[in-house]
Amino acid sequence: MTDSIVIIPTYNEKENIERIIRKVFSMEVPFHILVVDDGSPDGTAQIVKSLQQEYPDQLHIEERKGKLGLGTAYIHGFKWSLARAYEFIFEMDADFSHNPDDLIRLREACLHDGAEMAIGSRYIKGVNVVNWPMKRVLMSYFASGYVRMITRIDIRDATAGFVCFRRKVLQTIPLDKIKFVGYAFQIEMKFTAIKYGFNVVEIPIIFTDRTLGTSKMSTKIFKEAFFGVIQMKIASFFKNYNK
Fold first, then answer.
1. What is the pLDDT of residues 161-218, one digit of tens each?
2. Homologous superfamily of 4-236
3. I need a labelling partner for 196 at 20 to 30 A (CA). Which of 16, 68, 151, 190 fits?
4. Spatial contact of 143 and 135, defined as CB atoms under 8 Å apart
């Protein structure tokens, strides 16, 4: 048994899923993986299930019907993980934009350095993004600045999706009340953890855009994040954040 599980949400990731699973399982720290697949028509789930024969105790999959959104996939994975004995619960993309080697650094921040939520940050030391078009780099960078301005939280990479949570953070946050389902979900989780008084830290990483598969970013997701931040901030005035 391990104390660490990596949640990987998938939709049409057949080009990446086997490679990312094998890479995580090859590391010196033993991790388990939970794939939350939203009915990928490309056979992603079938690839995972075939690999379960090789990794019967380490690899898990939850299949959902239809594309239900990133946020709900992670909430599903959080609840599944909390029902087991995992202490460190990770978010990570399937497409290698997050380097699996950095899982160890995020875990170390929570295990030894006092972090309760460790974020793999693209912007804590300049802009560490590889292969993104400049338009998208600027949109992401200034979106985080916008989030800091509205919410007053001191997080440089508010939309980051590479995160390690200590168990108690996810036990404290009322997961059923997390509102957003797109990339605004990432902002809401960081904002809520900070409001509850948890120690949230950023660890510098290099983010490399996917080389295989298709990005899930859309105008709808961006609008949810832009307008949702204001709604979230206003709603926070009426919430009780006592642990």
1. 999 999 999 999 999 999 888 778 999 999 999 999 999 999 999 888 756 545 555 5
2. Spore Coat Polysaccharide Biosynthesis Protein SpsA; Chain A (3.90.550.10)
3. 68
4. no
